[in-house]
């Protein structure tokens, strides 16, 4: 068993729920007393902190949304004075004001603990050489992973994102055993490795801990085969703490959510109703140990499934299924919901297709149109036109069959689509422009 903190990660359900309830109550008292926005919301809903007597009572509390963070920009959701805040992160977002999160010294310590758990769960130890290619800065990826990696005593190479040739060079020369970055960046690194004439067998790389964007099971296979490593999925969001909210274990059948710090719920995104375990819906998280910025029932917009059955690894914390994507990333084409990760999954089942694609949505004559640009392998691209046409037709058929909507497929030459050093952009929606 590879556990960082066996006592906490494997505690009985009963113990865990007792702990959750105590921490939930404390948090609710705290936000009611110190964060006017929470007090107002709870007063409006007619709920007092004393009303939280069981874990089920959590459902009585109002949701918190990204809009609440924007309305309270920058620091009005902080539950402690700024003088006790030791770090501020922020995520840019595509529209409106950035999202701001604050951390107390203790929050940073907990985050490092959670990242230490996460890295250990993916097989890291003090003997690992961890190359951390998540961006350092306002983005939580770089510093979040960094503190956890130092905590377990690994040797950390803080490359941050970018300068890909140097990444590859250092990976080889420093004997990196674990790579941490977005899955799309891992693939890009592989391409640059190829251009530099470096093979996976020239490296000591054993595993990758990839997250910050959705990636399909097929993408995992692709990365594992190309880089000859084990690829683990890590999930998190700045609002809650950053990376380390949930992580896969060796079983790779769902991501364990650190339930001693976060209470997960799954709701129907339309009605807000709680859904049963096993049903797909929006993940809602309550952070029950954060000092600087606890969030109550935060609507992540991420779609997944909650599984509370016991995992073979021995950890008792509930698992979430690989996140399908954010409801905001979903594009609705003539009423049909399309997730880029579904497109990815279909594409990667087709031989000759490269794991680089882009969805372009437009509206012509009041009708939505979806174009999927797909890179094909070098050998196919230089083959006869007829073969390319056949492949195009096959991709169209598969996508249309799986998505249930008409698709225009455009095959593009290898390396035609922009590569990403961080979160990949998978959709261009021209309808909004
Ligand atoms: O992306 C934190 C992070 C850093 C997670 C490094 C993992 C590794 P944000 O920039 O606030 O924080 O973006 C959070 O990214 O709500 C999801 O929509 C998406 N996301 C994060 N991890 C995954 C994942 C970081 N493993 C948003 N699978 C979240 C799918 C993910 N989506």
In terms of topology, how is this protein built?
Blueprint: H1 6-9, H2 13-34, H3 36-45, H4 66-71, E1 85-91, E2 99-104, H5 105-121, E3 129-132, H6 140-151, E4 155-157, H7 164-173, E5 178-181, H8 183-195, E6 207-211, H9 217-227, E7 230-237, E8 242-248, E9 255-257, E10 262-267, E11 280-287, E12 298-307, E13 319-320, E14 325-326, E15 331-333, E16 336-338, H10 340-347, E17 353-364, E18 367-376, H11 378-381, H12 385-403, E19 408-412, E20 427-429
Parallel strand pairs: 3-4, 3-5, 5-6, 6-7, 17-20, 18-19
Antiparallel strand pairs: 1-2, 7-8, 8-9, 9-13, 10-11, 11-12, 12-13, 12-14, 15-16, 17-18
Bound molecules: 5'-O-[hydroxy(phenylacetyl)phosphoryl]adenosine (DLL).
Using brief descriptors, characterize the structure shown.
Rossmann fold; twelve-stranded mixed sheet; binds 5'-O-[hydroxy(phenylacetyl)phosphoryl]adenosine; globular; single chain; 20 strands; four-stranded mixed sheet; alpha/beta
Descriptive account of the structure:
Helix content is 31%, strand content 26%. The chain contains twelve helices and 20 strands. The model has no long low-confidence stretch (mean pLDDT 96). The structure holds 5'-O-[hydroxy(phenylacetyl)phosphoryl]adenosine (DLL). 5'-O-[hydroxy(phenylacetyl)phosphoryl]adenosine binds next to α6, β7, β8 and β12.
């Amino acid at each position: 068993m590879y556990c960082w903190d066996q006592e906490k990660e494997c505690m009985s359900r009963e113990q865990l729920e007792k702990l959750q309830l105590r921490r939930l109550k404390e948090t609710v008292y705290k936000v009611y007393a110190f964060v006017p926005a929470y007090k107002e919301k709870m007063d409006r809903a007619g709920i007092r902190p004393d009303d939280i007597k069981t874990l089920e009572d959590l459902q009585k509390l109002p949701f918190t949304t990204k809009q609440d963070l924007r309305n309270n920009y920058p620091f009005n959701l902080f539950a402690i004075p700024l003088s006790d805040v030791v770090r501020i992160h922020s995520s840019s977002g595509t529209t409106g004001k950035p999202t701001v999160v604050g951390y107390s010294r203790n929050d940073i310590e907990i985050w490092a603990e959670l990242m230490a758990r996460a890295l250990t769960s993916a097989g890291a130890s003090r003997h690992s050489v961890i190359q951390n290619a998540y961006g350092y800065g306002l983005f939580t990826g770089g510093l979040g992973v960094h503190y956890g990696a130092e905590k377990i005593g690994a040797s950390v190479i803080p490359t941050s994102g970018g300068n890909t040739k140097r990444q590859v060079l250092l990976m080889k020369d420093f004997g990196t055993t674990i790579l941490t970055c977005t899955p799309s960046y891992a693939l890009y690194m592989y391409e640059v490795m190829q251009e530099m004439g470096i093979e996976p067998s020239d490296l000591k790389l054993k595993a990758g801990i990839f997250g910050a964007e959705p990636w399909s099971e097929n993408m995992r296979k692709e990365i594992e085969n190309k880089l000859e490593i084990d690829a683990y999925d890590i999930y998190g969001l700045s609002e809650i703490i950053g990376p380390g909210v949930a992580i896969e274990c060796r079983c790779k059948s769902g991501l364990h959510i650190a339930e001693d710090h976060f209470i997960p719920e799954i709701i129907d995104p339309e009605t807000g109703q709680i859904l049963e375990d096993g049903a797909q819906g929006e993940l809602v998280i309550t952070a029950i140990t954060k000092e600087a910025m606890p969030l109550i029932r935060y609507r992540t917009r991420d779609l997944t499934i909650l599984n509370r059955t016991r995992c073979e690894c021995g950890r008792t914390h509930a698992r979430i299924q690989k996140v399908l994507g954010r409801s905001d990333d979903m594009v609705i084409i003539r009423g049909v919901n399309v997730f880029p990760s579904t497109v990815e999954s279909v594409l990667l089942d087709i031989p000759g297709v490269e794991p680089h694609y882009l969805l372009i949505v437009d509206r012509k004559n009041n009708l939505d149109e979806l174009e999927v640009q797909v890179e094909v392998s070098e050998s196919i691209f230089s083959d006869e036109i007829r073969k390319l046409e056949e492949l195009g037709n096959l991709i169209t058929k598969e996508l249309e069959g799986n998505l249930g909507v008409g698709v225009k497929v455009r095959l593009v030459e290898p390396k035609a689509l922009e590569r990403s050093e961080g979160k990949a952009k998978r959709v261009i929606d021209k309808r909004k422009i």
